[in-house]
Amino acid sequence: MTFIPHDVPLGIKASAPPAGYRRFVVAIFVFLLMPPAAFAALTIAVDPYFVWGAPSWPGVNVVRPTYEPQVVMAKPYQVARLRPSAVALGSSRVEVGIDPRHKGWAPGTVFNFALPSSNSYAVMLAFLHAQKHGAPLKQAVVGLDFFAFNINFPLASTLTEQRFHESTAREFAQYLALRNRVKPKVASDSTGDWNEALYLAVNADVTAAVIRKDFKSGREHFELAGRTERRKGATVPADWDETGYLQVHPDVAAAVKDGSFISGYHHWLAAGQAEKRLGGFRPADWDEERYLAANPFVRIRIARGEYRDGYLHYVATGRKQGLIGAGHPADMLDRLILRFASLGQAIFHAKERFSLVFSTTTLRDAISTLRRQAEPADFNSEGMRVWHGQEAVLDRIGGPGAAMRTRLLNGPWNPMLVPPARQYCFTKTEAGMTTFDPFRFMIQKAHAEGTDLRLFITPLHAVVRTTINALGLGERYAFWVRELVRINEEEASKAGRQPFPLWDFSAPGSVTAERIPEPGDRSPMRWFWEWSHYRKETGDLILDRLLEHGDPARVVPADFGVRLTTANIEAHLANGAIDLSRWAARSDLASNIAREAGKPGKFNRQAEATCW
Questions:
Q1: What is the pLDDT of residues 370-389, one digit of tens each?
Q2: 546 near 540, Cβ under 8 Å?
Q3: Cis (ω within 30 of 0) for the bond into 9?
Q4: Which DSSP string do the residues of 382-394 spell out, in sequence order?
Q5: 3-state class of 344 per DSSP?
Q6: What is the pLDDT of residues 394-432, one digit of tens each?
Q7: What distance in Å separates the CA atoms of residue 536 and residue 94, rounded to the nearest whole number?
Q8: Considering only CA atoms, which of 564, 560, 543 is closest in space to residue 88?
Q9: How many whole angstroms separate alpha carbon 536 and alpha carbon 555?
C-alpha cells in the first residue's frame, strides 16, 4: 500500500524522494560511520591486550608493550575466550616462572592465569573463573606464596570481581555464610557527652573569648549563648560513625593524625559537610541487605576486614563503580539487574568491552604497539611474562646481587609486611574469615568438579627465608605450611579422595641456596631473577616434579622439592630450619639482614601485632 501524506490533495500521487537525495543521505551516513569503524577495526586488529584473539603478525603486534599495565583486566577476558583445559595460577612469581608450553601439561589449551600481587582470595577467584570457562578445566598448577596469606595484603587496585564469572564471588560468599559469621557493625565512638575540645575547635570565636576570659569555658558559652545560637560541636551525635568516616576518607584520617583536626566529626563540621562527604551518617533509606544481595562480592570485602559494612564500601568505591542496590531501583533495568545477577555482570562486561574498542587509551596503545615492535617482548600470548629485556634492566641497577642487597638490607620488606599495618596476620578481629578460607574453598571445588589440582610452595632463596625469620615471621611461616597440609588432607578425607599433591620448593638446597653475586658483580643468577622471582629454568624443574615429566636435557636436583604430608611435615620443617641456620652461619649478608630486619621501625611493626 502506498502511503499518501495528509497534506497532499486527493488524486495527486506523492512523489518519492529524488535518487540524488537518497545517495546524499547514504553518503553522509557512511561518512559519519567511517571514523568509528576504522577506530574499532584498528584496535581489534592490533589487539594490544590479547582480548580479541587477533593473530600475532610479525612487525605488527607480536610484541604488545602495553599489555602489562592492563594484565589484571585482560586475563579474565582471555580465559573466557580461550576456555583453557589447564591453567597456572598464583602471583607474578608464577607469571614469570611457570611455562604453559612445558611438555608435561595435560593435552589441550594451557594458559598462565597468574595475576600480579595475588593474595589467596585472588588466586581462588582465578581458579573458579577458569573452572567455569574451562572446557572443562582438567588441570591447574597453583603456586602458593606466604605473603598471599597475610590478611593485611591488599587486593590489586585494578582487580574487580565483576570481571570474573558471576558465580565465583556469590558461591564463595555463600560458603562463608556471611549472614551468620559477619555482622555489620555500625560502631560509634560517640557518647553524646559534652565535648569541650570539639566545641572550641569548631567555634574559633568562642576559643578567642575563652582566652580573653570572657567565658570560663566553652561549656559556659554554650549554656549562656551557644545553645540559643544553635552552635555546632557541643556533642558528637550518637549516630555518627567516626571509624567509618576515617576509613573511607584516608586524607581526613591523615589530617586528624597530624593534628589539623581533632576528629573526623570536626572535619565534617568544618569542611566535609560542605564538600558533601559521605560515610559519617548512614542515610535513613539505606538498605544494607539489598546492596549486598545485588553485589555479593562486597560481602567478601567485608569479611576480609576491608570495610565494616556495605554502606562504607558504597561510599569508598561502589558509588564510583556505579553499583546498584544503594537506593530503590530507578527503572525497569535496575529492577531486572537486582533480580538477575548475571544480567548486571553481562552489562558490566559489555561496557568494558565497548571501552576496549572505542577508548582513546586503547587507540593510543594500539598505535604504540605498532611503533614498538623492535622492543623485546614482556609477555607471550599464553599469558606468561617472558621478560626478554629484564637482564638489561637488572644490569642497569647493578645486577641481581645489588638488587637483593638493596631491598633486603634496607627495606621496605614488601610483600611480607605491607603498609599501612606492616604486620602479618592470617585474620583479624574485624574480619569474618581467615586467609585459609579461599584456599579451602578452592580445594573443595577442585574435588567437586574433578579438576586435577597440583599445589606447590614457591621457591624462595635462602636469604629471603632468613629475612622472614629476622622479621619475626618464622613461626608463622611454619604454621602456614602446616595448615596447607592439614587443610589439603582434611578436604580430601571429606571428599573421599586422595589429597592433591602439595610440594615444598622453599627449603634450602642447591637451587634455593644459589650463590648471590658479590657487590660490583653484575652477573645474572641461574635460578632467580632477583630476591623475589624465580626464572623459567626453575619453573621447568618445578613442573617436572609436579607433572611427573622427565626431560633428558635437565635433571631435577634431589634436594629440590619435597611432597608434604602429615606424616613428614614435622621432620621436613625441622630439617629445613637446621639447613637454613647452617647456610645463614656462612653468610655475612644473612647476618647483616638479620640485624637490620629485626629492628622494630617504620617498615616492621610485627612486634605490635595482636592478631594471628
A1: 999 999 889 999 999 998 88
A2: no
A3: no
A4: TS-B--TTHHHHH
A5: helix
A6: 999 999 999 999 888 887 888 999 998 999 999 987 778
A7: 9
A8: 543
A9: 15
